[in-house]
């Protein structure tokens, strides 16, 4: 007897875009469609760990450059999570 495996994997849909600045219409980056949602979520978690470390170091060392880096990384992590959520709804 053969057991049929579910080969359907939820993937990102590619709808999430990141804009920086007021009134801008050109996104700085967007999430590509077709990334397995589990992988996107794992990568978002890794990025958030980096965000946490950069934020703490930036505050403790009064380094605005690190704070801005954490800002952009957190936006990328959020975009990954948002697009993975869209993919999991399909």
UniProtKB/TrEMBL annotation:
Protein name, per record: DUF3077 domain-containing protein
Domain of life: Bacteria
UniProt organism field: Pseudomonas urmiensis
Stored Pfam families: DUF3077
Classification lineage: Bacteria, Pseudomonadati, Pseudomonadota, Gammaproteobacteria, Pseudomonadales
